[in-house]
Amino acid sequence: MELRQLRYFLAVAEELNFSRAAERSYVSQSAISLQIAKLEREMSEPLFERTSRSVRLTVVGAQLVSIARHMLELEQSALALTARRQNQLRLTGNMTFAANALAAIVSVRERHPGAEIDFVLKRFAEQIDAVTSGDCQVALIRGTVERSNLYVTELWTEDLVVVLTEGHPLAGADNPSLEQLAAYPLLLPKRSEQILLHRVIEREMKRSGLGLTFGPPVALDHTASADLLNQPDCWSIMYASTAESTPKTGLVFRTESGHRLQLAVSAVVDATVPATDMQRDLIDALAATAPPQLP
Question: How far apart are CA 93 and CA 123, in angstroms?
């Protein structure tokens, strides 16, 4: 029995839906189903009653919920034993935030000369686990999380960048609108591989009463920008930091006219642990690295 399996089990138990549990855990539905099946084999009992319309806990599954929560709490307590000393801080994020993280660290070390601040690269789900376990004290993320044991500070709002080929009908528009873009297929990785971008575009299309069509999904070993060159009638979206490092040949980069393709960049900390002055200074310093707002 693995703690990962218990995390997935709790996600399904709380959502009573394998698809939502997979999104919440940032894994594919097939991966979460496989781990639940392994756990059921080890338990020699089914944990869920599944029909085409619903998922329910079995008696054994309901009994396992409290045990699983306790085991995961014990894991966090054990990891917290190795928490850094008062003058040490660990910030986690992904590589697109490296420049922001390093600039903030330099600023904080000017105010705290004895500080030891690490920037640790992790995937989104790992970042949140690192904060709740005490391995890292701050996570820098796109989007937000809603958990009672976490405190989220919005640092800035980031416009997503619209990417088109030079020959696309909308390439001549300085700021194409969502209404104009909706007439063309969107190229993105599969939803399970890029949930946040899918959520942003789906939310704004729904709010604007627009339909959304997709081109072929971008494979894991491909990039949306390269695939666009082979699908010139499509469009894509990407983070501004990704756009900056993307080769510009054959492509144009635009901002949606109504600034509707936006997401928050936030700092996440453990709400159950008192914040230190250095932690608060780091969050302020991160907010100060916000990029200039696009026109």
Answer: 7
